[in-house]
Amino acid sequence: GPRNARIAIVGDWPTREDLQKGQPFSSTSGEELGRMLHDAGILRSECYLTHAAHTHPPRGDLEFFFTKRTAKNVIPSPQFATYIESLRAELNEVKPDVIIACGELALFALTGNSGIVKWRSSILYPDWTAAVVIPTFSPAMVMRQWNWRYLAVHDLRRAAQYANGTGP
Fold it and tell me: What is the pTM of this model?
């Protein structure tokens, strides 16, 4: 996406198809993201797209990115800590107004928070950026839990309002 995008979308990690094409959100779930963005009034072509991690974890296991993860103690692996630094630097270059965290790993990388179900639709203000972060479900999660789609579209509409300067 454009390097001056007002909205950045951060997914958890690239799918195998994303890695083959060298393009984020290029799989079936990425196509669903495009439809959800359209429903929310956001042009995908005007968004900056990236991922929190640069590798696909074995068996799609989120725990691959953490040394320790309990309810009270979350420690990213050294490799994921490097990804977090890289992601934040990348987004600080783009300088979006709104960052949409699509999924649990993206939420953690951007805010240090865990629990996408609990945090989705929140307006978060991390100390490393001037952008607001709005977490939502990943498109892959929506495809597995279809009744969550309307919630994700609601979150995307909220992001659009903030990007347009009409947010609460």
Answer: 0.94
